[in-house]
Amino acid sequence: MNTIAMQFLSGLTSAMFLFLLAAGLSLIFGVSRVINVSHGAFYMLGAYLLVTVGRLTTLDATGFVLLAIVGSILVGLFGGLLEILILRHVYKGGMLFVALVTFGMLAVIEETAKIIWGAELTTATKPASLEGAAQVFGGALPHYNIMLITAGLLLALGVWAVVEKTRFGLLIRAASMDREMLSALGIDVPRVFTVTFAFGAGLAGLAGILAAPMVSISPSMGSSIIIEAFAVVVIGGLGSLPGSLLGAFIVGEALAFGILALPGLALVMVYLLMAIILILRPEGLLGGKAS
Amino acid sequence: MARMAARTALAALGIALTWGAQAQTPTGKPIVIGMIAEQSGPLGFYGQETTRSAQIFVDQMNAKGGLLGRPVRLIVRDSKTAVNEAVRQARDLALSENVDFLLHSISSAECVGIGNVATQAKKILFSACGNDDFTTKSGGRYIFRIPNIVARTQGFAAADYAAQKLQNAGNRYYLIAHDFAAGRAIMELFKTRIKEINPKVEIIGEAWPKLNEASYAPFITAMTEAKPDVVSYFFAFGLPFWQQSASYELGKRFPLVSSYWGGSDEMQTLPRNSIPVGAVMGGLPWYAIDGEANKTFVELYRKTYNKPPLTAAYLVLLNLEALKAGIEKAGTIETEKVADTLPGMEFNSVLGPVKIRKFDNQGTTPLWTGRAAWDETLNTGVLTDILKLPTEVYLPSEEEVKKLRQ
Known about the structure:
By secondary structure, chain A is mostly helical. Chain A is built from eleven helices and two strands, in the order ααααββααααααα. In chain A, strands 1-2 form a two-stranded antiparallel ribbon. In chain A, β1 (133-136) and β2 (139-142) form a beta hairpin. In chain A, α1 (2-32) crosses α9 (221-236) and α2 (39-56) packs parallel to α4. The longest helix of chain A is centred in the first third of the chain and has 31 residues, at 2-32. Chain A is globular and about 60 Å long. Chain B has a five-stranded parallel sheet with strand order 2-1-3-4-5, with helices on both faces. Chain B has a four-stranded parallel sheet with strand order 7-6-8-9. Chain B has a three-stranded antiparallel sheet with strand order 10-13-14. Chain B is globular. Chain B is α/β, with parallel strands linked by helices and 406 residues long. Classes of the chains: A mainly alpha (291), B alpha/beta (406). The interface between A and B is large, with 51 and 42 residues.
């Protein structure tokens, strides 16, 4: 019983880690139909923000939270700027072309990061108050994992509130349903795209800051993780935020319990799951019918 | 990059000034070494390190009068940690640039392909990869490797360390390794060896996270819940695992044992609170290697790059030392004559005397295996309680090599 509960909690940690990344990806796709390959670059920038600040000063828990907020806003602004300077001009090239452009953006940002921070692997330190572990169900659950689970759930709630309860959310939902109609109603659709892209990039930056103390940091760290985040988005249904949360949950827990039953299959677990779900429901778990 | 180049130049200048008095300025047509290194991509961390090491060795040679009185030039090409790119660059270096010798960094996936290019182009190639096949199945007259960090060595060294130092820990073993060719091979070799030494050993569970695993929490929980006596592990990159497992204090629950050569490098990179104190791992730790040659190398490396060398730096250095010794002994850079001279040769390396085996051109360097700890004086993670295992016994015999090459 305890083993199962512990495994569930560690699965939840993996799930939140994936959701933080998948949320922005899904949001951007839902609104502007952009498969944003450069998402990984914003994630990487978030991580390097923590590295850079961590080298200058020792962060306590408050400083860490503050950095997470300010850092994700900065990364978001940078994302918005790139959308205005580059993406806005290529949307009409079609989905594949835009995806290729974002791939180019990823390469340029990664190479620039290499010039600034070097190609070496580096690590970030977490605040001292988030060290250590709590005793739960007779096992250890690191404080940092508890923080990650909480942050993921809060973020899910926050993004849901923005999408469902605000005017900007209304525009996002409208844009994902019928862009022409929205434009005809006199809404500045390009601005909705820019703000959404910035919001999504900010979420990636936040994911990077929160993940930084748990991973090895290098300029190419984003490109390796992004495939898994895409898998989560596809499982949940492209463009659906609740879908991404559900997708992340299923992937995290499937991995956690899958490795107990079939340890040799951890490598393919996510993709196997994706294949099965796509066969049964091609639009993903909570995705609308492809238009 | 510019800063690094400036530092290199400055260091080279410093050496030139020191040696200027006694060393002749090298003259004549330069001897060209073409190097293929993973300067970008997943192994970029190591490729940068091997390039640095090769560059200071070449600079130092030139400052001391060159090789056979001739200057040495190093051309470095980026393999991008991709086999096809590595092979393309090797072919270009061998055929278009017509370099005199080929040097490869550490990628186990790349070295066999580059080896084929070298064999076809009849160029001597030195690699520091960990792929067993490189000097056995795919080996040949022009293929050389001095560092002995193959899967057999890493798997057997871990088992020997466990047998010698952890015999009281218990017999219930749990295995965790990255799911790729080397990970699978090393765990298999570990299992075979440990069961040979101690037949009572029982494998109670296994876990195979993927190479780029982002979240190790489920793996760590599954491992601790299995309540093993000893955990044997192997990682291509251990940093995320160590970062994420720190709060679980695994070292207090069970010994972790491995001899993966990246271990010592990772301890030099991790923040203090993530050091897995007590975990057993391998490498060539600069602070634990005896001898004047090492002292000089570490000093030079520090002066040039403002940090101590990693294991990867030593791996390439060993190859270059062998190449230099071989050329000097042969008295020529003519490929066939050097290829005749190198097999069976003994030379003094940064790690002490090393022999190149006659039948497979493989060097017989030792591997350091020890426990992770934090060192206050050095202000970095280190290996302590080190066993310097003479790894020659782990290498395949002449008959085995012959059989593999058939």
